[in-house]
Amino acid sequence: MLFVGIDLAAEARRTGVAVVREDGALSLEQVRVGGSDEDLVAAVEAADRTGVDVPLGWPAPFVDLVRAHAAGTLSAPASTDSAWRRDLAMRTTDREVHRRTGITPLSVSTDRIAYPALRWAGLEARLRERGIDVARDGSGVVFEVYPAAALHCWSLTHRGYKGAQNAPGRSALAAELVEKTPWLDWNGYRDLCVRDDNALDAVVAALITREAFLGSCEPPTDENREVARQEGWIWLPGTSPTPPTMR
């Protein structure tokens, strides 16, 4: 089986892509930084499952507000305080991630993460036109993943490893991952992951994707399933990655 992880950036040159192959053993078949729209569509088509590190949708209340505001029919809120704005800024899954991990995901409504999210919206449409099930709740072939939160679940370094200035933290995290997943053949890609956090996050995204496929991640509850279909759902793994022999 092939599990693809995509650390999606707004620009192709900063997008990380990793391919994990499982055929009794587990190995990194490819890791690269740089992925055009065409590259990413082809990767999703070739994979059994793909994990994308980007919000797959926007908060439903935010979508409703933008629609009503555009039409000039927005009802005046009782208050525009922080609680009102928080409901517009955070998705249901964002709140669930915070509840479970204490980590607050970037807001796709109010932060720069919206730029790669807009790119994914276009890619989702292209994949859907090709007949690929890209349901945002993970019931199709795509999972929304969040490497920092997954690393926290695995009790690994999840902060201070991004950017050129944090190469030592990235090296330490790569070493932790090697220790945590001794059954994963890195196939010579560890150095690239130490050099570039986009590559490292793509590898983590692929590993989370495998966990989600194996049923080791927390799915939307019945109560949250409908909103997850619109907003997306971040798949958080258990306390440790699953070795191949435990399947």
Automatic annotation (TrEMBL):
It comes from the Bacteria. This is Nuclease with RNAse H fold. It comes from Nesterenkonia lacusekhoensis. The lineage of its organism: Bacteria, Bacillati, Actinomycetota, Actinomycetes, Micrococcales.
